[in-house]
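Fold sample X.
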Amino acid sequence: MSLNDHQSRTDFEKWNYELLKELGPLALRFLITLNAGGFVILLTFLGGINRNSQFVLPLQSLKFSLSLMLGSIVFAFLLLIVSYINAGMNSKGSPIKFLSNSIIGINALGALISILAFAFAVLALVLSFEIRT
């Protein structure tokens, strides 16, 4: 491998790393929007329920799902703040080594936890719906 090939590979790896650092906050913003949308839809559903409705949703399931979605939103916001702090520290030339080296993994794990919480909240709602006859 020549010196130019090695330099090109190193440049590509740096570019790829920077791209992944940019995609983390983007994914977190998407998950915040997804969870907030689910939260709003549930609140809208609550506003449309009346006593004569044939659909029944236990209050515990609703509280559980809303709590999961809200917790996921707060968690994603915290991770987003950490990402922006990391970006700010790196732009000033004084990165926190642990944060700088781990931000991609932290964002990926946070995004996974957030999407799993959303999926679990929706699943809990779907499984708890009852239809009155």
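Fold sample Y, listed below.
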Amino acid sequence: MYWLFTPIFLKAMSRKTREQTQVITIPSGTPAGGIQAAKITLDTSFERAEGVNIVEIAAGGLAYYRLSIQDSVGNVHTDMAHKKTYEFDPERAYKEVDIPIVDRQILVRIDLPEATTAALVFDISFKLTNRG
């Protein structure tokens, strides 16, 4: 017995959602002020990012920091907000966003209120979807 993988069958097999996670690290001794930016390329086999969350691994000696998300052409997808706005919550697994996935990078902008005394490390996860 064998399976016939036609384009229609393959499309039906394609996933509708995926979580894409990347670790972001800001080194110890990074000064306060100015915006740090991490670049992420989202999986272009999906149409949109519909959610985002972070899980902090190491706080970098900071009580808080602020994040925003924009793309490499300057479209702002989330305003600068306290890290708790993005943190994983069992009541709401993702902060809702609507980011079209096109051939450009996502910039996670990080505003540090003071210098880091240790590495700041967190996972950032995007919920990617195909609506079709």
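Sample Y note: Confidence is low (pLDDT under 50) at residues 1-13.
Also: The helical segments are 7-13.
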